[in-house]
Amino acid sequence: MHKSVGADSGFTLMEIMLAILILGMVVAMVSVSLSGSINVIEATMDRGELYYRAQIAMERISEDLTATVLPANVEFIGKGEENDDAVLLSFASMAHLVFDVENGKPGMGIIRYGLQPDEEESGQLLLLRSDTLCRPTEEGAELEEEETAFLLSDRLRSVKFAFLDREGETLDSWDSTVREEDLDEKKRQLPAAVSCTLEYWLDMEEEISIIFQSTFVLPVGLIQPEEEDKP
To answer: Quick one: how many helices (H) and strands (E) in the chain?
Structure first.
């Protein structure tokens, strides 16, 4: 007796191709799902990294500004936004940082905040902080060491400072300089508070950015005596 070949002969070519097609669709769907999940995770991590950068920068700016003083020969200069010389803020503060523990000295420093283009990442800005130790003198302050600068934050799209006087008015710039001939009528003053806005690139191709803003009160700016009324 001869056995007939039929159902026991295996899969047909059509069945194999259909199975491969279904398997490919399943793999594609899993890949898309995984890719989407990975993109979400990367975006969340990237956003978290920006929050961390902004926190570090804002904490440093806060410590510097809240310790601001106004000695005789050091002015508080605030430009507000990016300008030609890229220096946004220049002021005296008791928040001088000591990097050389053995030879460095604490005290008052001349602190400057400035911007410069990132040479490695086109379209991004770098926020730099410089700090020069000063020695108090009868005339005000005298520089005691060379300027020390370091990178405070990168991946920036823009940085802006605004200045509030004691009446609550917001100004785009601040200059405590008073000409000698005007000293009888005007008084050198610090702002009562400084507002800082940091804008970070989140996605340059899509032109998406994230903004952090905070306002710092300057105690010395608040307690400066009012100018006496002239008779």
So the answer is: 2, 11
β-strand partners of 91: 111
Cα-to-chain-centroid distance, residue 99: 21
Q: What is the pLDDT of residues 57-100, one digit of tens each?
A: 999 999 999 999 998 888 999 987 665 457 899 999 999 888 77
**CA 216 – CA 197 distance, rounded (Å):** 11
Is beta strand 148-164 parallel, antiparallel or unpaired with respect to 170-171? antiparallel
Cβ contacts of 109 within 8 Å, gap of 6 or more: 92, 93, 94, 95, 96, 97, 131, 132, 133, 134
Question: Strand 174-175 relative to strand 193-203: parallel, antiparallel, unpaired?
Answer: unpaired
Spell out the domain ranges in the chain: 41-223
- CA dihedral 218→149→58→191, nearest 10 degrees, is 20
Give tens-digit pLDDT for 162-179: 999 989 899 999 999 987
Closest CA to 95 of 60, 123, 54: 60
CA distance 203 to 211: 13
